Amino acid sequence: MPDGASSRVRRRDRWLHAAAFTFGLALGVHHVTVGLILPACAALVLLTEGAKFFSGRRLWIAAGWACAGLGIYVHLPLAAARSPLMNWGDPRTFDRFLAHVTGWQYRVYFEARPELMMRQLADFASRLLHEFGPAWFPAALILAIIGSVCIYRRARPLFWFLCIGVAANLAYNMNYEIAEDKDAYYLPVFLFLILAAACGVRQLPALLRMKSRRGFRLDHVAAVVLLLAVPGAAAVSNYAWNNRRNYYIAQDYVQNMLSTVAPGGMLLTLDWQVYSPMLYLQEIENLRKDAIVIDINHLRRPWYFPYLERTYPETMHRLRAQVQSFLEDLRLWEQDPELYQRDATLNRRISARFQDLILTLIAGHARSAPVYVTQEIATYGVEGADRGWVEEMVGNYQLVPQGLVFQLFGDREFHEPAHPALVTRGLVDGTLRFAPDDVVTLKVLPVYAGMSYNRGRYLSTHGRHQDAAEAYREALKFDPGFVPARRALAGAYQ
Fold first, then answer.
1. pLDDT per residue over 136-159, tens digit each?
2. Are residues 238 and 254 in the same domain?
3. Same domain, 339 and 197
């Protein structure tokens, strides 16, 4: 190879090495969304450098740079070895490290079902229209189509890079039951469409070809106007949804929930929207450290128990026998989950030990301090292994609504339900807006409305119909379309 050509290759390879290193670093942020771009990158290299690249040393050098960036994952076992407060995944061993970085616990949400794919596709279409501005002004998507045609004609490798990247991302997301962070998984698609739209804007003058008599280029003016209008329309239409300057929903939610939890009380929940901000406010802001808050879902992870033993030593000491029995099965299940699917005896044993652990936890704490549960537990919003212990709990205790939680009582006497003054900044006063699939709409507001409704039902059962009617009206303030509250309110008047 001539010296000039060799020099050009070396200069190009500097960019290749930088891109490979950046790719490795990006895998440490979110390996799924970033890793799905790898087929597109391979296609781009194949179409620009040829198949010989994959059999030469340049590939191995680039892979080495990617691995160097991927070295950011070394932080995980190093941090875990220092025994942090909550050692999520406990990635100190190779098996746990591999399970943690590959999202082992989330694989249950990945399932290829036609109905799931259609639902996810419809959700993606809705988000796509919302992301790039109002649905009645799809200029960005039209520009992306124009830009894609232009890229296909002028830069075929880049075109296939974009197409394969979009296809890989959508293929994964269509088969994954994503929870509240769906937007993050679609970011590569949105970025690819923005790139195509930018090429579409560049192509506008050639498409418009307008020129005034004085030589003033109207096509350039139109292109500039559209270039400003597209992001401007998206910013204006989405500002109200994304403005979080006065966002206190999570803080108020936790403080409202804890306002009726007595000192030393225990709160059990299955709702991550409760436990996540609760964990932050307790551990970082030292709010209500006296309250014992436990996430039932996390009890299915061995790494959660060291946190509980460090944070609530007396509570865990009373459960030593139940914890040891359950962990014996839990660690074996983590090593071979299919074994428990095949063996009905093992399946029943781990379920029985899990149920015994929770019921013993409740009974032991109830002897000295109140026990509370969140709404999804008390109203049977549970499935699978949780169903058994919830049914037995409801059979053993009376559940009385106290603000945003239920308190467990061992008798069947009437207990005055607490009605605290709830702080709901931005929730229903119109200062914040929430999309239909926002976590506030799906998870938080139903708790406020539902607990007001549950208080009304409890009061109505004990003949307090006027107070019940007031509770139903409060529920309708949080959700005017809450049909059970409307019906109950009509019945209370009768």
1. 888 889 889 999 999 999 999 999
2. no
3. no
| Residues 373 and 397 reside in one and the same domain | yes
Query: Which pLDDT score is estimated for 135?
Result: 80
Q: Answer whether residue 307 shows pLDDT above 90.
A: yes
- Asked if residue 1 has pLDDT above 70, the reply is no
Q: Which of 214, 237, 212, 236 is nearest to 222 (CA)?
A: 212
Domain presence at residue 429: no
pLDDT for the residue numbered 425: 93
Q: Are 161 and 97 in the same domain?
A: yes
339-373 pLDDT tens trace: 988 999 999 999 999 999 999 999 999 999 999 99
Choose one of 383, 418, 453: the last residue of a domain. Answer: 418
Give mean pLDDT, residues 462-476.
93
pLDDT surpassing 90 at residue 294: yes
The reply to whether 115 and 196 lie within a common domain is yes
